[in-house]
């Protein structure tokens, strides 16, 4: 009996299979068998596999009619004879000490244990590999409450763990063949009830997962429907209240994502496809709130469909649904009636003060008025992004892409990190742009509530937010005199993309801001750099490009700290490029004629900088 059985399901991956099998053959542990399960391939998978079986008897080839990935793995489980089992996809690889280090650990332990090491993403192109395991903050040792952690999210790829085959067979644990993705997550959820999982991060022992255009993870509908199926299975088995709450939130999130996906199809005029997808969703989850949407009127009107889907699946509706709706509604109406009447009588085009920053509140009001928009590119950050990124130039250079600038004064590095999940949920952008320099690369003092902001931007009426933030101010989009903590701007106006219209006459910045000096002292341990790294990691994990632009700075601002400034530039560049994002350092000298003051560009300077940014984006993409 071999110590380890490696099960490799293979379907039309003959071009990748040799790399996978070679990684098995090179293992420092020799006591293994490798079961290649050909799931009805129509390419030359058989020829590739049999070449290895002839050269090394530890490789064993099995052919079966096509039944899917789970079916092939289950076939392998039946045929496996090892003490431990590892599931390796036909395009993934193992580093040389993977089997030895993991099996040595299990051999020296008592009890029912599974072990996994580091797992990294690698790519077919020149994209740097990514230490994927770091996204989940694993620390070496047995993972406490691992089942609860798995309920929260799928945090373990199929080829990472080495598991005891006896436990799998004893409890008849097989891969669910009705799932076309997330079948591994479903499997680990069930196995984690019988095994303790240990993280063993040794060197040269990582599992390497290949990412390419053919990966299943690129199919949003498939991924979300299967995630919903797994969570619905969990719903029937969970007893822990915390896990039930986490899982219910996950179900709501998946359903909303799928409904908005259908809404996008309607928006694109693909009505038949939208109908088919909605029917499929109802079969998976025949919930009355989804069935209501299966209406010819809604299917024909994307805006109404999207609003209806949002209305049915936001938290406030679920709170009502779960709390004896009539009694609860009566209490709410009694509480809100005076506020509603007050709003009707005293309405002055007001918005709720959702943050302690006037400029950010103005931006939120704009977003509220532009509901259901989608933005491919979003500018986020402080006045450096707000002022120095020229909206019209960016849109023109990038072929009229959908763009909006959500930056505001004082919105700095930690605020950006806090706000990104909301932006991702609301707009699913492909690219985030931040323009920054030493002045604004710091911790901001803006406070806000993401949850309330989401309600507001999605269209929840103002009066429904009053119980949370009963404060307001008059909103005037064209501010003749707009004050903030850094000085006074005259004739300030926002363009239709949310950026500042800097094409104004006269000197619009106070003279003292032209001569103001800023001292900068470099410290590599500053929390700002950690926040920047978290931003880069988050965006990479969500497949969003990040463009970090070092804004030009007049010599006046750095003349007393030139060396510290250079160190800062190198530090930020290293962080951004480490995660395969775009770092832009302007190549040309920006003269005083390009500035309104020491840090903010005028129309000439902002256009010049924006063209450089757009060129870098086009080169990267």
Q: How is this structure best described in words?
A:
By secondary structure, the chain is an alpha/beta fold. The protein has 26 helices and 20 strands. The strands form five sheets. An eight-stranded mixed beta sheet has the order 3-2-1-4-9-6-10-8, sandwiched between helices. Strand 1, helix 1 (17-25) and strand 2 (32-39) form a beta-alpha-beta unit. The longest helix is centred in the middle third of the chain and has 27 residues, at 241-267. The two termini are 51 Å apart. The model is unreliable at 315-323, 347-351 and 466-491 (pLDDT under 50).
Count of helical stretches: 26
How are the strands of the largest sheet arranged?
Answer: 3-2-1-4-9-6-10-8
Structural class: alpha/beta
What fraction of the residues are assigned to beta strands by DSSP? 5-15%
Q: What characteristic shape results from the CA principal axes?
A: globular
Biggest pleated-sheet summary: 8 strands, mixed
Can you count the beta strands? 20
Helical content, roughly?
40-55%
What integer is the average pLDDT? 83
Q: Indicate the radius of gyration in whole angstroms.
A: 28 Å
Low-pLDDT segments? 315-323, 347-351, 466-491
Distance between the termini: 51 Å
């Amino acid at each position: 009996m071999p110590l380890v059985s490696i099960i490799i399901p293979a379907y039309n991956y003959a071009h990748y299979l040799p790399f996978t099998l070679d990684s098995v053959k090179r293992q420092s542990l020799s006591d293994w068998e490798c079961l290649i399960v050909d799931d009805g391939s129509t390419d030359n998978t058989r020829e590739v596999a049999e070449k290895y079986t002839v050269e090394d008897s530890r490789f064993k080839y099995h052919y079966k009619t096509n039944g899917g990935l789970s079916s092939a793995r289950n076939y392998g489980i039946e045929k496996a004879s090892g003490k431990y089992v590892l599931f390796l996809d036909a395009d993934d690889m193992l580093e040389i000490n993977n089997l030895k280090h993991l099996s040595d650990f299990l051999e020296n332990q008592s009890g029912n244990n599974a072990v996994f090491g580091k797992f990294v993403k690698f790519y077919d192109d020149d994209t740097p590999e990514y230490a994927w395991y770091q996204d989940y903050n694993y620390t070496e040792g047995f993972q406490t409450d691992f089942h609860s952690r798995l309920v929260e999210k799928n945090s373990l790829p199929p080829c990472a763990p080495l598991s005891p085959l006896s436990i799998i067979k004893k409890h008849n644990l097989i891969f669910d063949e009705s799932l076309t993705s997330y079948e591994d997550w479903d499997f680990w959820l069930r196995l984690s009830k019988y095994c303790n999982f240990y993280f063993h991060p040794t060197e040269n022992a990582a599992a390497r997962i290949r990412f390419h255009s053919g990966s299943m993870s690129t199919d949003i509908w498939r991924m979300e429907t299967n995630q919903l199926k797994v969570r619905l299975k969990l719903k029937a088995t969970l007893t822990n209240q915390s896990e039930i709450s986490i899982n219910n939130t996950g179900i709501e999130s998946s359903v909303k994502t799928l409904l908005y996906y259908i809404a996008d199809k309607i928006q694109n005029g693909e009505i038949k496809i939208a109908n088919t997808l909605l029917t499929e969703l109802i079969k998976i989850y025949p919930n009355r709130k989804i069935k209501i949407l299966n209406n010819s009127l809604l299917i024909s009107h994307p805006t109404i469909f999207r609003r209806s889907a949002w209305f049915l699946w936001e938290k406030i509706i679920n709170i009502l649904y779960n709390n004896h709706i009539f009694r609860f509604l009566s209490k709410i109406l009694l509480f809100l009636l005076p506020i509603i009447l007050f709003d009707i009588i005293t309405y002055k085009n007001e918005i709720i003060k959702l943050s302690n920053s006037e400029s950010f509140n103005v931006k939120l009001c704009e977003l509220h008025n532009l509901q259901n928009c989608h933005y491919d590119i979003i500018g986020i950050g402080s006045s450096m992004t707000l002022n120095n990124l020229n909206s019209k130039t960016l849109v023109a250079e990038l072929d009229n892409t959908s763009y909006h600038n959500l930056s505001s004064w004082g919105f700095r590095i930690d605020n950006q990190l806090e706000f990104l999940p909301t932006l991702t949920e609301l707009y699913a952008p492909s690219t985030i742009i931040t323009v920054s320099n030493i002045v604004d690369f710091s911790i901001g003092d803006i406070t806000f509530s993401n949850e309330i902001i989401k309600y507001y931007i999605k269209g929840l009426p103002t009066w429904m937010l009053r119980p949370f933030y009963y404060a307001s101010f008059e909103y005037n989009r064209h501010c003749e005199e707009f004050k903030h903590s850094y000085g006074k701007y005259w004739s300030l106006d926002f363009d239709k993309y949310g950026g500042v219209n800097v094409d104004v006459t006269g000197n619009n910045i106070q003279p003292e801001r032209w001569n103001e000096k800023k001292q900068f002292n470099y410290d590599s341990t500053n929390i700002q750099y950690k926040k920047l790294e978290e931003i880069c990691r988050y965006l990479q994990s969500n497949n969003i490009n990040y463009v970090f632009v070092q804004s030009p700075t007049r010599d006046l601002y750095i003349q007393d700290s030139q060396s510290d400034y250079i160190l800062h530039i190198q530090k930020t560049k290293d962080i951004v490029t480490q995660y395969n994002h775009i770092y832009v350092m302007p190549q040309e000298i920006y003269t005083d004629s390009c500035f309104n003051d020491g840090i903010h560009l005028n129309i000439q300077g902002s256009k010049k900088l924006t063209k450089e940014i757009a060129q870098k984006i086009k080169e990267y993409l």
